[in-house]
């Protein structure tokens, strides 16, 4: 039964990943169909992630009130209905309205499941959990590419993904008894409860290293989401790639994330996450550098390398949180980290949309390198501080 419970959690993360890559894969065709400028993708991204930020801040209270199973069920249902609306939307303004349930549906389940797995499962399970997000995120562009290639239009792609989401909703509905049976509801000890009640956001930010951690999330998610949202458009406009081929390359990117996280789960048996994350970011930088070259044959490898390099970052940083800052503060810190992750994934792709709309699509690889550098500097500084802290604790022991 425990294995079945984990499989249900993984399935929920497939549902979480399915919508995340659809907009980037379909936008080169969508903006022409709807008659709106190319930079309007940034508006949809901002509003969607804005809803995600709001729901993630309240995810702790909502999950305590209703339980992770019900929160997951309702969240996936909201995204399924929003995607169905996308497939039928007659105007761009309708898409703007539908970003509200799409974003709200993603935030609560994301923060709740991440916190749960970080505190109660080993590192490999966290990496594998996020690899199943990659399953969903890589399936999205593949489905969109099939519909674009058959001239069915992007609407068919959104409709198909909505149908898959509704199937996941059915599984989650019938699995609610399992959630009630296996869901962990730990009760805080008196001293832990007091710490949670008195620390607040100011106390969390004052913990050494927290600011470095949250800006690591901002930098990483800016890189990940900008690549996913604008990678296809960059290839189409800069190098004349066909939209359906560019969509397949986006699928390669998310497939790289998926495969990389699956591999990382095994690598954690030998190496710690900080080492794996460092190796990954250098691999991602190599993939970004290939985008500077006007050689079409290198672009699939570029997308795949960036995906593989990004793979260990998010699950690794989440899983390291209880170890770096203590289990008492972990859930609160994870919530703040998720919020900054969403801020990075909202504002920075939107900012690039403004650049693309002004004819600066060619700076795309340089833009990615800036956030790769920010992420690397924040992580390496944090790692050094954690090592210094461990050394001081050993010296005083």
Automatic annotation (TrEMBL):
Membrane topology value: Multi-pass membrane protein
Transmembrane stretches, start-end: 40-59, 71-89, 95-116, 128-148, 160-179, 212-232, 252-269, 276-295, 360-378
Chief localization: membrane
Keyword field: Membrane, Transmembrane, Transmembrane helix, Transport
Major facilitator superfamily (MFS) profile domain mapped to chain residues: 5-382
GO molecular function: transmembrane transporter activity
Compartmental location: Cell membrane
Top-rank taxon, per record: Bacteria
Gene3D superfamilies documented for this protein: MFS general substrate transporter like domains
An example Gene Ontology CC term for this record: plasma membrane
UniProt keyword Membrane present: yes
PROSITE patterns registered for this protein in UniProt: MFS
Family named by the database record: Belongs to the major facilitator superfamily.
The name this protein goes by in its record: MFS transporter
Native source species: Proteiniclasticum sediminis
């Amino acid at each position: 039964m425990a294995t079945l419970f984990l499989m249900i959690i993984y399935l929920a993360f497939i549902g979480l990943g399915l919508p995340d890559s659809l907009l980037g894969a379909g936008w080169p065709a969508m903006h022409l169909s709807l008659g709106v400028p190319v930079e309007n993708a940034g508006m949809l991204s901002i509003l969607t992630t804005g809803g995600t930020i709001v729901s993630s801040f309240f995810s702790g209270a909502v999950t305590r009130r209703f339980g992770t199973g019900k929160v997951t069920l309702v969240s996936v249902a909201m995204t399924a209905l929003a995607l169905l609306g996308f497939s039928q939307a007659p105007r761009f303004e309708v898409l703007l309205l539908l970003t509200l349930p799409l974003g709200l549906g993603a935030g609560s389940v994301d923060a709740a499941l991440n916190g749960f797995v970080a505190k109660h499962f080993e590192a490999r399970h966290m990496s594998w959990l996020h690899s199943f997000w990659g399953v969903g995120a890589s399936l999205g562009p593949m489905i969109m590419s099939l519909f674009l290639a058959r001239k069915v239009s992007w609407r068919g792609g959104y409709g198909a993904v909505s149908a898959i989401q509704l199937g996941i909703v059915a599984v989650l509905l019938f699995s609610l008894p399992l959630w009630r049976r296996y869901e962990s509801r730990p009760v805080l000890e008196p001293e832990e409860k007091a710490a949670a009640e008195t620390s607040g956001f100011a106390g969390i930010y004052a913990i050494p290293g927290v600011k470095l951690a949250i800006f690591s999330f901002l930098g990483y998610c800016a890189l990940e989401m900008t690549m996913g949202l604008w990678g296809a458009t960059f290839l189409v406009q800069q190098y004349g790639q066909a939209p359906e081929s560019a969509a397949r390359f986006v699928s390669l990117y998310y497939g790289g994330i998926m495969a990389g996280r699956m591999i990382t789960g095994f690598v954690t048996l030998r190496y710690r996450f900080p080492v794996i994350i460092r190796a990954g970011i250098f691999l991602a930088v190599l993939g970004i550098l290939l985008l500077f070259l006007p050689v079409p044959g290198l672009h699939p490898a570029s997308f795949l390398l960036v995906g593989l390099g990004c793979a260990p970052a998010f699950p690794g940083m989440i899983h390291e949180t209880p170890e770096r800052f203590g289990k008492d503060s972990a859930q609160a810190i994870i919530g703040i980290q998720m919020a900054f992750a969403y801020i990075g994934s909202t504002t920075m792709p939107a900012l690039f949309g403004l650049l693309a709309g002004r004819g600066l699509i060619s700076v795309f690889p340089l833009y990615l390198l800036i956030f790769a550098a920010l992420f690397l500097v924040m992580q390496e500084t944090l790692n050094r501080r954690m090592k210094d802290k461990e050394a001081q604790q050993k010296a005083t022991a």
